[in-house]
Each structure stands twice: as C-alpha cells, then as structure tokens.
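Sequence in, structure out.
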Amino acid sequence: MNTKAAFASTVAALDGSDVIRASGIGSPDRARELGLSVAAELFELGARELMSEARQDPARGS
C-alpha cells in the first residue's frame, strides 16, 4: 500500500484582500518535513509579511 500524507495551509490578510496558499504531498513518516516545507513555501510567497501586518492592525483589538 502506498499511503501518502497531504498538507495544505492558507494565510490571508484580515480583510481578505490577499490570500496565500501552499500544499504538499509526501510520506506519512516524513510529515514534519512536509509541514516545514509547506511553511517555507508560504514564507517565500509573503506570508510572514501578511502575519506581521495582522499583528499590527489596530482593528484586531490587541
């Protein structure tokens, strides 16, 4: 049996104006590496900036 693990993640601007998605498929015994790879792809696509903007948004109430 050839079991695969799939991982998908999305980061979006609070107002929905920008959405970044990344996904990957790999071996279940390498799930951690798969998650790290997808996270790295999100960061390369600008997710870090979106998350930083969300933390600084006064409308969040924080």
